[in-house]
Structures are given as structure tokens and as C-alpha cells.
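Retro notes, structure queue

What went well: the backlog is down to a handful. What didn't: a couple of records were mislabeled last round, so from now on we paste the full input next to the output in the thread. Example, using Coq4 family protein from Aquimarina celericrescens:
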Amino acid sequence: MRAFILVTIYEWSKQPYQKWIKKNPAWDLPIEKLIAYPYESLGFHLGCFLLKYDFTPQPKLEDHDVFHVLTNIGISVPEELAMQYYLLGNGKRSMYLLSVIVLGSLFYPDKINFFAKAYKKGKTAHPFYQLEYKKLLHQPIQKIQSTFLITSLCK
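Corresponding output:
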């Protein structure tokens, strides 16, 4: 039930967030173009992520999926919250992110250790949340991860 409530709140807030808060332009790259990138590239791995979960790129929210790919954090509601903690640890600050963290923490107090681990991982990585990922789609994913010390929560 708690996951349903948070997903519903997200669905209600997504369009206003895309329209009025996100100022970056949409990438306008279909999955077919992403999976045409070289195998080791961020673009290819992003395309595979979208296919694996049967997602379509969300205009102006493409970076969110890139964060999943780079951090290897899943898409369950607790994992989504952990990714927000990871980004908070990495230095990202926004009212939206803080709102998600506060609500998520209230709904998932039993996951606080998982969230703390994600925060610490984000803290140890060099700031990467603000990069222009569309320009990095051709780069090898491992090069980006090693350059910015991005590690998975599983490690």
C-alpha cells in the first residue's frame, strides 16, 4: 500500500515537474538510437535499461534513467528512494528531491539503513548529478563510473 501511495503521488507530480521545473530540453532520442551506440557506451546501456523495464524515455527526465544505469540501482520504490539518497549524498539539492526523501523516509522507516548506505555511496563519488549526459552517451559506461567513483549499492 505504501508503494502504491508514493507511486500515485509521483504520477501526479511528474507532469508539473516536467513542465514548470525542468528547464533542460528533451533529448528526443528513441530507444532504437540508444541501442545503436557501441556496446560499452552509456547510450547502449541506457537503451538496454529502458528495454529491460519496458520504459519509454520521459522528455526532460532522461537523466533520471541515466542515474539508474550508472549507479546500478533498481526501480522498486525503496530503490528509487535509495537513488534519491545517493544523489543527495552526491550534492544534488532540489525541493523535489528533498520532498521525495522526506515522504519516502516516512513511508519506509524500515529501510533507513539502506538509504544511509546509498547516501554514503553518493558522498564518496565525485559530483556527477549535474553532467550533461546526452553529450556522454558515446562514452564507455565504466569510464564514467571510474572517473566519478560511482559504485553500486551491492558493492
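Agreed that this is the format going forward. Reviewer comment attached to the example: The first helix runs from residue 2 to 21.
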